Amino acid sequence: MRTELQTADGVVLEARVDAAEDPLRVTVVCHADPKQAGTMNNPLIVAMAKRLPERGHTVVRFNFRGTGASGGAHDFGVAERLDVDAAMAHARTMELPVGIAGWSFGAVVALNWLAENGERMPYVGIAPSPEHLPDELPSGPKRIILGTREQVIDAAGLQRYAVEKGIDLVLTPGDHFFHGRGERIADLVGQGLEA
User: Fold this and answer.
1) CA distance 141 to 138
2) Nearest 5°: phi and psi at 36?
3) Crossing angle of the two packed helices 182-194 and 43-54, in degrees rounded to 10
4) Do the bridges between strand 98-103 and strand 142-147 make them parallel or antiparallel, or are there none, so unpaired?
5) Phi and psi, residue 104, nearest 5°
6) Per-residue confidence of the chain (195 residues) as pLDDT tens digits?
């Protein structure tokens, strides 16, 4: 179902809700870098939006500001936290347990949003760049998924970060884009959020 989200600074975001038949939880999903063609309709995000509802997750996905039909301008992950606020506010109207997941840029924004807000909800990040991740993290279940053929981000740095922060690190076959592996990645995301 298509919908719109309004941010605290007045930006209208294009969004979509992929409803589970018997919802047990709500998951906000954040897409990859729009400067690298990331949108809520990338194959990996779409695969998550199809598979997670089968696991009982209603998925709220949206285009970050300046992407697709969303208003505003790209802000390199800073004002995008207000976009996550708006998606979270919508997710919380469903009165179910809420978690957050993201891929690449979206995984970085999501984890920074958690840290900034002291949120303890479950988090799963797919291949976030370690250079932009927060030093202080709230408690709560966290998982990072990394492809064994990662070619875009600093894979060794991300592994170090996960170990230092006590984050569940899952190494799985694939590169940064996980072509043809969307369902498997979605299951790894679902398992992390259901922990």
Assistant:
1) 10
2) -115, 30
3) 50
4) unpaired
5) 60, -120
6) 999 999 999 999 999 999 999 999 999 999 999 999 999 999 999 999 999 999 999 999 999 999 999 999 999 999 999 999 999 999 999 999 999 999 999 999 999 999 999 999 999 999 999 999 999 999 999 999 999 999 999 999 999 999 999 999 999 999 999 999 999 999 999 999 998
